Amino acid sequence: MTQHLVDSRAPRDLTAFIAELPKAELHVHHVGSASPRIVSELAARHPDSEVPTDPAALVDYFTFTDFAHFVEVYLSVVDLIRTPEDVRLLTYEVARDLARQQVRYAELTITPFSSTRRGIDERAFMDAIEDARKAAEAEFGTVLRWCFDIPGEAGLEAAEETARLATDERLRPEGLVSFGLGGPEVGVPRPQFKPYFDRAIAAGLHSVPHAGETTGPETVWDALTHLRAERIGHGTSSAQDPKLLAHLAEHRIALEVCPTSNIATRAVRTLDEHPIKEFVEAGVVVTINSDDPPMFGTDLDNEYAVAARLLGLDERGLAELAKNAVEVSFLDAAGKARIKDEIDTYTAGWLDR
Ligand SMILES: O=C(O)c1cccc(C(=O)CC[C@H]2O[C@@H](n3cnc4c(=O)[nH]cnc43)[C@H](O)[C@@H]2O)c1
Ligand SMILES: [Zn+2]
């Protein structure tokens, strides 16, 4: 599982630069960010679960044969989150892990349907994530925002519930900025979700569905046409369609690229076959993200190291990638300017050493 990380390491000096580079993370899942430390703590709280408590055993448990197997394992971790206190612990500890990597801003994809259908009270769920968000900002300095996503395979009932939770003014959390669609793409056509995205967009949320991760470029077109996507989660198969690449570039619709995830779920065969370079050469705005980092044996720093190698970047190139993510984030203008300044100051200081 972790083999693809070993040979993807950037040179030592770039690794040190990346470690302290201020960053924004735009595509990272709430449950998928549960580190072995967090999973062990949750599994100890709920000993009837099949999820191993031993962090070493988790490495094997998090080795996937394909995307369907990944979702199966993912849902077993979802089953560990049973109380509002579990939700708060997970959210707060994920923020701690992000802050350690100098992530100043993160849009965390949360699937509220998975928790409410398992019996967590919706009000208590919202309070738990908001409480953790405020504590994380005060204590770690990391600003969190939420993307509520529909777990596509769970159907229109899940879509309805997610749209309701995202748009009901009595429930909608302050940190919510966007609306997404995750889970498998095969057999889950995007157009059926149009009415739910329309409602979310009308309520002021941004549209950021997954598309083109495990199916072809037509799914990305569907996400653009029917779901009015402003950024695309993965979008990997866009490389197969030059007209699509031109469209993404012209309209500055960024791709949330997660290279190691694509290998772990077998969406792409090897890192060297990853189309990230084609995206950049076509003028598409690329952002670097970690998706489900502990499940894929990675973290955001490692994803930047992978990108540096695949794109042949130096420190300035990496700083530009980091600024891309800030620029296409849903943070306010003053917040964006602050992080971009910090990236520039850090990079200039590093190069002047
Ligand atoms: O929670 C349920 O009861 C449930 C029932 C049926 C299907 C589902 C899902 O489809 C859950 C999928 C889950 O996966 C999340 N996720 C994490 N990483 C990725 C990714 O790289 N691509 C797509 N989905 C991903 C997603 O947020 C869903 O919550 C759930
Ligand atoms: Zn994802």
Short description:
The protein is of the alpha/beta class and 353 residues long. Helices cover 51% and strands 13% of the residues.
- Sheet with the most strands? 5 strands, parallel
By secondary-structure content and strand pairing, the structural class works out as: alpha/beta
What distance separates the N and C termini?
37 Å
What ligands does this structure carry? the ligand O=C(O)c1cccc(C(=O)CC[C@H]2O[C@@H](n3cnc4c(=O)[nH]cnc43)[C@H](O)[C@@H]2O)c1, zinc ion
Q: Say how many strands there are.
A: 9
Poorly predicted sequence stretches spanning 5 or more consecutive residues: 1-7
What is the H/E string? HHEHHHHEHHEHEHEEHEHEHHEHHH
- State Rg: 19 Å
Topology:
Layout: H1 3-6, H2 12-20, E1 23-29, H3 36-45, H4 55-61, H5 67-78, H6 84-100, E2 103-110, H7 112-116, H8 122-140, E3 143-151, H9 155-167, E4 176-182, H10 194-202, E5 206-207, E6 210-211, H11 217-225, E7 231-234, H12 242-250, E8 254-257, H13 259-264, H14 276-281, E9 286-288, H15 300-311, H16 315-327, H17 333-351
Parallel strand pairs: 1-2, 2-3, 3-4, 4-5, 6-7, 7-8, 8-9
Helix pairs in contact: 2-15, 6-8, 9-10, 16-17
Bound molecules: the ligand O=C(O)c1cccc(C(=O)CC[C@H]2O[C@@H](n3cnc4c(=O)[nH]cnc43)[C@H](O)[C@@H]2O)c1 and zinc ion (ZN).
Observed structural traits:
binds the ligand O=C(O)c1cccc(C(=O)CC[C@H]2O[C@@H](n3cnc4c(=O)[nH]cnc43)[C@H](O)[C@@H]2O)c1, single chain, globular, A_deaminase_dom, five-stranded parallel beta sheet, four-stranded parallel beta sheet, 353 residues, disordered N terminus, binds zinc ion, alpha/beta, EC 3.5.4.4, metal-binding
